[in-house]
Structure formats: structure tokens, C-alpha cells
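Have a close read of this protein, sequence plus C-alpha cells, and explain what the C-alpha cells say about the fold. Thanks in advance:
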Amino acid sequence: MSLSSEPGTQCESLGWDRVLGWRVGRHRLASPAGTPVEVTSALVGVQAQVASSAHQVLAVRCSSPGGIDVERLLWTDRVLVKTWAMRGTLHLLPAAEWPEWVALLSTREWRITPAWVKYHGVTAEELDAVTAAVPEALAGGPLTRDELADRVAELTGHAHLSEQLRSGWTAVFKPAAAQGLLCQGPPRDGNITFVDPARWLGQRASRPARAMSTLCRRWTSR
């Protein structure tokens, strides 16, 4: 493999061992070091659709893999946050960086096409109403999925969306998460809950332009 340069300059030849070595290093696998929060920040979030997978990602990269307690970091210390982020999937993010991430995620355009409406059974107007109702629904504290669905249905008058609001895919609540109105909260009796991140973390989203600059500098400096 060769790196292209300006005309007239010498190209540097790279072998796959160097390329793969660089990737392993950037993924924090060559020299495990740091705390779970530091590693999560360095990786720009940890995919957390499967909790055990997220734990494994941290365990092979942190300096003390035996002492990692993701539940404590999320629900007691509140230094990590679990929310829908890149690609609309669950990720662990450092709580201190949540304002920048939400500022960027809030700029995402949710294209509600006829195919989306047909698949999810929710119109664009209904989705807007659900998103707008989330802050009031969560004002009293953590709610389970069923409790949140009931409260949102009551506030919006959209009782016919009961099935969609209870869906494990949580498609109708992802726009609220992207706007910083909702994230996962501490489990209750084996059920996940949802909370208002501003109250749970005591932070609010940054401005998008500033967030983009901050996150780009943070990532490229590593």
C-alpha cells in the first residue's frame, strides 16, 4: 500500500502490519489504559445494544478490567449515560460530554417518508406530538416503558398508538432522545426506565456549532 502525495514527491509505502497496527492502537487495544469513562470518551461512545458486549469492550481496554461496574457508573455515579446516539442505536457516552453529543444529534433530520409511516404506524404529526409530550411525561421522575407510553398517550390523546409507544425498538422516542429530552434511567424490577437527562445529569445541550468544533478537536487530538 502506498500513500499518494503531491506530484513530484516521494510516496511512502505502508505494509498491512503498520495499517492494522495503527487501527489496533486507535481502538485502545494495543496498550489497555484508563478508566471506563476515559475509554468511552476515546472510543467516541461504546455500542450498548447488548450490555454484556459493552462491558467486554471496556474490559479489554481499561487498565483495571476486573473492577468495571457499568451499572454503578450509569445509575449511581452518573458519569456515563445510556442513550440512542449514532445510527439510532444505544450507546454509552461520558455524561460530561452528553451536552455536545446531543447538540449534534439534534441537528439530524428525521425524514418521515410514507414507507416509514407505513412501517411504524405513526405519522409525522403524531411523532411531533409524542416528542413534545416527553418532557412533561418525565417531569415526575423515572418511568418504565409502559408508564411512559400511558403518560404520553394521555398527554397527546393518541391512545391508538399504544403498541407503537411500547415497542422494544423505541422508534417513536428516538427523536426525543436526539433532542436531549430522554435517556435510559435505572432499571426497576427488571424493567428499563426513562428519565429526563437535564434533571438526571444536571446538564443541558450545547450549541451545535460549538459542539461540532469541540468533538472534532477532541477526536483528532487522540
Observations:
- Residues 124-137 form the longest helix (14 residues).
- Residues 107-204 form a domain with the Arc Repressor Mutant, subunit A fold (CATH 1.10.10).
- The beta strands are 2-3, 12-13, 46-47, 80-84, 90-94, 143-144, 183-188, 191-195.
